[in-house]
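Hey, quick one: can you model this chain's 3D structure?
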Amino acid sequence: MSCSNVEIKRDFNRSAIRYPYTVFDIEKPQFHRRIMERMNRVLGIPRGNKTATILDVGCGTAYFTSLLPIGYSRVVGMDISENMVKIAKITLEYVDKNGNIDLIIADGEHTPFRFDVFQEVFCLDVLHHVDNLESIFREMLRVVVCGGKVMALEPNFSNPFYPILCFITRQEALPKFIKASKQNLKKMYIANKLKEISITEIDFIPQVFFKLTPFPEWLSYVLEFVESLFRNHPTFYFLSSHFAISGNKG
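Sure thing. Here's the predicted structure for all 250 residues.
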């Protein structure tokens, strides 16, 4: 494990107890289901594929892992932090009724899987934390089958509020956001010869914040309506909070 990965592991072990996407976020089942449906649409995940297996790289407390579709043969959540995985196991006690989600502790640059194992590999809000993007990306490509999807979701650094947020919170260094920018990730996808590359801007406001209100599902509907009005407007490119990029392994 590289020195930078040791630091990442230490930082997330420390912050696990304060991490926002815990079991307490999913005690509103209607909102949980609403986020799940929206996530499936944005990521283009086919429903009911009972033969497919999915890998979630950097699953954290498994909040997003738990949002992946029911009916898949197997979903694997992987994280470098032992403490994150401990909380993830508690999360799954609430939501994994079918028992088809497995959790492992592993470094995203050196996974324990064989070649060509997963039909889908996701990396959600992770890449801006790592120093060696190329290494973790190569590993994602190694474990996905030919024709399988590799998807990353990252903060949209084109949003002018992100530098301000970084300055206020001091949680992330700006160069990391720039390294995992939309433009740089697209270049990486092209360089690795992925096919059918697509980029989707999502959310003026991350919907997980709505859970702090008494009417999260209603706010979710309102936000999606507003987004539908501005989807093709250039403003949306700059003000969206995140972007999703995906491509198929050739």
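One thing worth noting: The mean pLDDT is 77.
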